[in-house]
Every structure is written in C-alpha cells, then in structure tokens.
Amino acid sequence: MSRVLRIFAIAFYRLMNVLFPVKGNRLVFSSSVGKSYSGNPRAIYEYLVSQRYDEIWECIWFYEKEPFDIPGNVRQVRYRSLAYLRFMATARLWVFDSRQPAFLRRRPGTHYIQTWHGTPLKKLALDLDDVFMSGGLDIDTYKKHFRDNAHTWDYLISQNEFSTETFKRCFDFKGRMLEYGYPRNDVLFEKNKPEYIEEIKTDLGIPKGKKVMLYAPTWRDDEFTGDQKYSFRPNMDFDLMREAFSDEWVMIVKYHYLIWDAIDWTPYKEFIINVDQSKDIAELYLIADALITDYSSVMFDYSLLQKPMFFFAYDLEKFEKKLRGFYFDYEGQMPGPIAKTTDELITVIKDYDPEKYTLKYNAFREKYNTFDDGYACKHIFSLMKKMVSTDKQTILGISR
C-alpha cells in the first residue's frame, strides 16, 4: 500500500469510528489475510452455521482476489477495500488467524479472537534475533509493530502448553489464552471416516488404488519478490520423485499462503495433483497416507492422525542458524526420518519402518496435541455467544 493510500485508509477508518457505532451482532472473519477460506476462522464460522446462528448474526468474510464458495448466510467483502474498513470499524467481533494492518485498532465494544495458525517450531516475533523477510523493517521496528498488534488481541487460541508459554512471551500477549486446541482440527476427529475421505479423493480426481503423499513446506524469509510476496523454490527433484513413486502414489503440493508463485505442474499431471489456497489443508490431511514437510507447523496437526511423516530439510543449517532458529532440538524431536536431498528422501520413504519411530511419535503427540479433543469449536462458540448480541432490536437492524 502506497503512503498516500495508507493515509487515506487511516483517515477513512477513523471517520467510520466516529460516524457509526459498533453493531452488536456483526462478526468479521478472515483467513490468511484474505487469501483463503480455511483454517481456524473457517472452522469457527462453519460451526456457528451448523447452529443456525448465521440467521441471527451478520457474518462478513474478507477475500483478496475472488469471493469464496462459503456456506450459510454470509456477505463477502474485498480485503482492504472501503467496505472492509467500514465493517472492521463497526463489528462486534473480529476472528482472524493473522495480523491485520497496524492502524486498525480495536475500538471499545469490539472483541478480537486471534486464532493464530500453528504451534511454533520456528522462532517468532519478539524471540527473533534478526529479520530477513520483505517489508524493509529492521528488527527493532518489526518487534515493536508485532508487540503493538498483539496488544490489540483479547483472546489467543493455543494447541498445547508449550504454545501457551511461547505465545505469551514471543507476542508479549496480555489477553486471555484459550487452551481449547485448534478449531480446524475438530474435523480430524469428526470426519476421519472412509466415506468422507473417498468423497474428497473423488473431488480431487485422485485415481483409485493410488496412495497420497502430501508435500506441505513452509516459506523462507529471504525468498521474496515483493511486499509480503514470497517465492516457491523447493530443492526437491520432482522428476526423481515421479520416477520413484508414480506407480503407487500421487503427490499433492500445498505451499504456504504467503507464496504467490503460479506453478505450472502440467509436466507432472499424472503424478502431482494441483490444489490452490481455496482447499482447506485439514481435508488434505485426512486423505494423505504420508506427509512430507520441513519446518512447517503442519506436523503438529497431522500427528493427530498417527500417519507417517518425513522431513525434507535440505537447508536445515541455514534455516536454524541464520533465518529463524528453532524452539527445540529439531533432529532430536522429529517423529520421522529427516532427509537433506531428494535421493535421501526417496530412500527413507521406501525403507520406512514405523516401529523405529514409535517412541518419538508418541512423545511428540503427548507434548504437542495436549488440548486437541474435537470440541474446540464448541468451546469458542460458547464464548462468542457471550460477546455477540442476539437482541431482537439489533437483529432487525435498529443498531446500524
């Protein structure tokens, strides 16, 4: 956003704060800063739809490029538009999984549930020693912006005790921690059923009899092409992977929402199944027979299913010592084999013996899946009902 547009947006937002009161039954949602309809905000929204509260609450979803296919009674608004600023200024409740622009300060009468988007392996926010990501901020300015933003959060969701303590420190979080587990993982309890899994596979066009490997890497702070736009530069040889596995497997590649590259997967069309940001990764967990990742928090969610995980850490030393650093011993705690080349990855997948990793896997799940029990949405919905109005006058639009 240019300096002129930013000044105008700030002025407009402040004007909306003056002209319009907070509307008691208005809720705003966003996932991945408008890039997707997924994750914790989606799970929370769809639970309230299942309870028919979309009929009495005014629900707004923000999108960046195109409106999503969303169930229920919902209005969709383009992210960073004037309508976005107006609804942000007048909503009773914000539900987001990422930070919003710094000038959007929550006003009195508005509540903010920050769901975040994963248990941290990589160091975050105030725990960073340096910053390499796009935006041009020095480390001190970056930390100040992050701290100021986190101080606007009323509630923050945690998946385990480790996250609770880490988030409190690295975000300097002063609000209430919701130790409910992640809403997005409720589906891993509710819909881990053959008929539902088969439905997803059919929708994606996965050939019958083929096993599914999900490759879900994180982003690299120093691989950017523009303002908060990052590249997909994996060191994986997809030709070798196809040669080794295409007889029995198909691969789904799901990269981080900050990645903007449009990858042409047509040379691998018989092996790689292309999915975009609109596909919720929880559904991919359910159909995947194995996960390949690196330092992404997907490992914590996927471990709930107790299926094989492989770690393609081709830049481990650089990532750990230069880019981010880790909160725990990566090589000591990963509940599956670690490979640094494609050849090594192929070997560890073909030679995988789950019994070798049973103790590590059980310890990993015990530590990082503490609060996930399939009822996170129910708990959060109960909290939301205490914040959002169901008063008939409000519902009829007398509060504007």
- Regions with little confidence, pLDDT below 50 for 5+ residues: 392-400
Largest sheet: 7 strands, parallel
Number of H/I helices: 16
Q: Looking at the structure, what is the overall shape?
A: globular
* Main sheet: strand order: 3-2-1-4-5-6-7
Distance between the termini: 29 Å
Give the averaged pLDDT, no decimals: 89
Q: Roughly what fraction of the amino acids lie in strands? A: 15-25%
- Share of helical residues: 25-40%
Q: What structural category characterises the helix and strand content?
A: alpha/beta
> Measured on Cα atoms, how large is the radius of gyration?
21 Å
In total, the number of strands is: 15
Quick structural summary:
This protein is α/β, with parallel strands linked by helices and 400 residues long. Helix content is 36%, strand content 16%.
Describe this structure in words.
The chain is α/β, with parallel strands linked by helices. 36% of the residues lie in helices and 16% in strands. The protein contains 16 helices and 15 strands. It has helices at 3-19, 39-50, 82-90, 139-150, 161-170, 186-190, 194-204, 238-245, 281-287, 298-302, 316-323, 330-333, 342-350, 358-368, 376-387, 392-395, and strands at residues 23-30, 58-63, 74-78, 91-96, 111-114, 155-157, 176-178, 211-215, 224-226, 229-230, 249-253, 272-274, 290-293, 309-312, 338-339. A seven-stranded parallel β-sheet has the order 3-2-1-4-5-6-7, sandwiched between helices. A six-stranded parallel β-sheet has the order 12-11-8-13-14-15. Helix 10 links the parallel strand 13 and strand 14 (309-312). Helix 1 runs parallel beside helix 3 (82-90). The chain starts with a helix and ends in a 5-residue tail after the last helix. Residues 392-400 have low confidence and may be disordered.
